[in-house]
Amino acid sequence: MAELLTHVLAAYVLATALSWRYEWITAPFVTVAMAGAITPDLNRLELLLSAETIESVVGVPFDWGAFHTLGGTAVVVAIGALLTPQRYRRAVVAMLALGALSHHVLDVLLISPSGYSYSVFWPLTPYRPPTPNLYLSTDRWPALVAGSVAAVVWLGDQR
User: Fold this and answer.
1) How many domains is the chain built from?
2) What does pTM read for this prediction?
3) Angle at 85 between CA 16 and CA 23, to 5 degrees
4) Please, which pLDDT band fits residue 159 given cuts at 50, 70 and 90?
5) H or E stretch at 131
6) Is the pLDDT of residue 2 over 90?
7) Is residue 150 a contact partner of residue 13, using CB atoms and an 8 Å limit?
8) Are 7 and 145 within 8 A, CB to CB?
């Protein structure tokens, strides 16, 4: 749970800081960026509904792991765009993508036994970039750092 909180707080920090430069990024769009930070973790829905169940219902191969790649992120962002009124579409796409990309950047920093991250660039390439092995997904300190930075940004935004 600390990892999910870290992703949401990181997206908040990025979107809020960008809102200081770009007036079109208002509070609702900051929230969209925070929601975008959750989208790569849609693969965790497998805990509730197995891929085999979905395959049997829709009749095509399915894998939850695809959500945790740039290809899966692009699909989720595209669906978000289709569900958004046209006048907000560009802003929603930008903020969903910002949140999701911040998630991927943070996940590439995770400690991995192999020294390589996941295939983040799939389906373009199966390349697994090397990871700096900065932290574990179970560590709490990234959430504390993200929370502290988010508090400072929130205070700065109140002025």
Assistant:
1) 1
2) 0.92
3) 30
4) confident
5) none
6) no
7) yes
8) no
